[in-house]
Model the fold of this input.
Amino acid sequence: MSVIEVMPSATSRPDAPSEAFLDLVPRDFARDHLVLSRGGMNGTERLLASRRTPLIVIHNIGVRLGADTNIEFGDDEAIAVAIDKAYEGRRAPQPVGVAGNDAVVGGADIDRLLAQADRDLLTTEGKGPVVRLVDALLFEALSRRASDIHVQPLEDRVLVRYRVDGVLQTSRELPARLAGPVVSRIKVMGRMDIAEKRVPQDGRATVTIGAGEHGRAIDLRISTLPTSFGERAVIRLLDTSGEEHLLSFESLGMPKATLDLYLDRASRSSGIILLTGPTGSGKTTTLYTTLRRLASRGDRGDVNVMTIEDPIEYELSSPEIAISQAQVNAKKGVTFASGLRHILRQDPDVIMVGEIRDAETARIAIQASLTGHLVLSTLHTNDAASAVARLVDLGAEAYLVSASLSAVLAQRLVRTLHTSCEGRGCDGCFGTGYLGRVGLFELFVVDEQVREQIGSGSTASVIRASARERGMRSLQAEGERLVEERRTTRTEVERVVWGLE
Ligand SMILES: [Zn+2]
Done:
């Protein structure tokens, strides 16, 4: 992916545009979007653009030129005049569009494709425009760093929304008649049955977004669901070439004091470590970061790390790191519980179970941890201290929970303020004021005092209050700290910690 850098100031007179730009970007395209080169150097194209120029257009040009781009904003009228002058006497070049290869998704101007798709649907059966429209939506979603694309048919239109940093944003509204063709195209990509429109379906696909060395492989998980206005589709984008699943704890935002305590528990050879938090709170990333760290530790020699997951989100193994990952398969009888039992016959040291949600899995996980295995898993509770009560609710004996539980890490992700615009909202953050996310962590360490409390049947609130008295930082306190550091807002912390929208 090309890098886009936005320069803060407006500009004086434009410098001469690069030949590459004039060759590869058609005049009409430049004129429509008010964008012109000011020359290129060392793989970076300097662009003069209007504040109205969509970022995806800049992306397209960067991909097209195979260059990073840096933008300076100028006056619309002056840019238009400069474009006319620059293209004077040149022949029309080939148009910018989606790369020809089926598996390669390039950038394209969505508004044009949309108009084209809409028009062609009325006149022909041609599927080309819809294919390109879906490709362009994928490209746009990726350039906005979206994790999911929602295609949601309504009575009179189709909403296309992107989930960015955990929050759904309405991106586009398509005419209602495009619902069927767009969802059908998505189903074709996922090798799903396009004739069957009355049952929910799941599919997968891998596409390369961007061309050449800028291409990135993206795994798509596609799900459709019939609704009263037609089939709804959600595409999850898993960027397998991205770095997100290979983060360091520091870049997850874990404070050093919390990290030291957490790693102390994670480097023991037995015990259960649980991560809690709602879907999308970053638990998997933290688990994966932990597993890779444990598997690559030289000072402990070779460690057999095995997982049973639903689904496997990323392949964790690399030439230096060996981790065996298995996936739940309900149809074939592979559940968390049965998978865990099989793993125990494979001489593991560290085991990750995707989730503990039934009595049997809880029982086997406890047994495994008491017989010299480190067990990592997730649990659905709001805060760390409630994990004890949850395990007991699942049927685990309190004395076994107290003997096996080592630590519980509650986690949330809060959006961080966009530093360039200080949260006021700009083109760089699509007007939201936020860019990127950072973790909030509450680490509950099970010590002697907690063991006694569990043994004597203390309630979650007593255990929680006592842990806080002894220094446990709550999610809320950590959120307050980030607000004070002006890294996020109180509204955002409340939304994430309390589920307030
Ligand atoms: Zn901004």
Summary: The longest strand covers residues 405-417. Residues 418, 420-421, 425-426, 428-429, 433 surround zinc ion (CB under 6 Å). The mean pLDDT is 85.
